[in-house]
Design goal:
- By secondary structure, the protein is an all-alpha fold.
- The chain has a domain of 104 residues: Alpha Horseshoe (Serine Threonine Protein Phosphatase 5, Tetratricopeptide repeat).
- 52% of the residues lie in helices and 2% in strands.
- It has a two-stranded antiparallel sheet with strand order 1-2.
- A hairpin with a 2-residue loop joins strand 1 and strand 2.
- It starts with a helix and ends with a helix.
Length: 397
């Protein structure tokens, strides 16, 4: 069959000229001498006109193959027309009967084509859930895991740029099919990791209600809490996860860093959202005095707080999460630590450091306290010319 014959067939189908359709098929060669897009167009019209008998003849002639291994990909093939039929609701029932009948003739419906199965391709292409269920009924394995250890649930939770309502419905269905939400892929990521990373709030709730564990860690040592806090900086996600569990604040990731310190290091600003995350972590028991590694060097939350803005430090102090009388192992007060911060030739940081120093002293930290090296906070400030205003102010105290 040629491109011209397919075009003629589509036109006759549109007009409902059954006699002409039969004549074209009878005279056409059994050899496929057409482009995929012409076959797609003809098949789409045959579906709209409900000429399923003609489609059966296409199957018999091999134009629509029952062996998925005949294809090197699903995209741009006849499956585009089959999976996204342009039909009205009242035509759907009859189409589903024919479509299921075709699927049941396929040799191996779970055959991978270009690294993906027909069912997985349909998921990615935003195919209706009604058709997806028909594919499953025809034998597609919804429990299947690919070579990377990814379940269909994992893949659905990874989808982007698709309607949230559809994703939620798919997740509901796959969970009802018994897929375990805690199964991890080769990177030890779970469906919950992906739902959090793509900010699917409703999906997170569905997974958690089905027993998803927010404390499971990927191969970087990061849990869903890490994804909410240090990837998305999303307090709503964090609060949602906290309704189901509490982070392991003592655990560390592969870099040796705990959750609070990772957030404080990466905290992009003192926005309301970021301060809310910080308060949620501290409320749940995160310890700002706990040390963890960063580039093989121990740093505490206090160290990172000393580098953050005056507004952030003030928020933590005023909520009582950090004792004003705090001293580290070397006898450094919070004031010492603030004055030790490298401002990297940044005037704005020098000004903010000045605010932090005035605030801490105003709260009662004694600037005359010396650490075990017999150094006061001002001694560290003197090491940077940009901190001159801070030095002058401290010397007057």
């Amino acid at each position: 069959m040629t491109n011209n014959e397919l075009r003629a067939l589509a036109e006759c189908s549109r007009k409902g000229d059954v006699t002409a359709i039969e004549q074209i098929i009878a005279s056409a060669s059994g050899k496929a001498e057409f482009q995929d897009y012409e076959l797609n167009s003809a098949v789409s019209q045959l579906i709209r006109s409900r000429h399923y008998g003609v489609l059966d003849k296409f199957i018999d002639k091999g134009f629509i193959s029952k062996d998925l291994y005949d294809y090197d990909r699903f995209s741009s093939t006849v499956f585009h027309a089959l999976l996204k039929p342009q039909i009205s609701t009242d035509q759907l029932a009859s189409y589903l009967v024919w479509f299921k009948g075709y699927l049941e003739q396929i040799d191996d419906i779970n055959e991978e084509v270009g690294g993906t199965t027909l069912f997985e391709y349909a998921l990615q292409e935003n195919v209706s859930i009604t058709l997806l269920k028909v594919i499953a009924e025809a034998g597609a394995d919804v429990q299947r895991m690919d070579q990377y250890g990814q379940t269909l649930l994992f893949k659905v939770c990874s989808l982007r740029m698709q309607p949230v309502d559809r994703i939620v419905e798919l997740v509901d269905w796959l969970l009802s099919e018994g897929i375990d939400p805690n199964v991890s892929n080769v990177e030890q990521k779970t469906a919950l990791h992906m739902a959090v990373d793509t900010i699917k709030m409703e999906v997170v709730v569905k997974l958690m209600d089905a027993g998803a564990d927010p404390g499971l860690k990927d191969w970087h040592g990061e849990s869903a809490f890490h994804y909410a806090v240090t990837r998305q900086f999303n307090p709503d996600l964090l609060e949602l996860l906290l309704n189901y569990g509490v982070p392991d604040f003592h655990g560390v990731n592969k870099q040796g860093e705990n959750l609070l310190n990772a957030f404080l290091r990466m905290m992009p600003s003192d926005s309301e959202a970021n301060l809310r995350i910080l308060n949620l972590l501290l409320e749940q028991g995160a310890d700002p005095t706990a040390a963890s590694l960063w580039y093989q060097k121990e740093k505490t939350g206090v160290d990172w707080l000393s580098e953050r803005s005056a507004a952030t430090l003030q928020e933590v102090m005023e909520r009582g999460y950090l004792d004003l009388n705090y001293l580290d192992n070397e006898g450094n007060t919070i004031l010492h630590k603030v004055c030790q911060v490298d401002i990297n030739y940044d005037e704005s940081k020098a000004r903010d450091l000045y605010k932090k120093v005035k605030y801490l002293v105003g709260e009662g930290i004694d600037p005359q306290v010396e650490n075990i090296k017999d150094k006061k906070a001002v001694d560290y400030a003197m090491e940077d010319n940009l901190k001159v205003k801070t030095v002058e102010w401290l010397l007057k105290q």
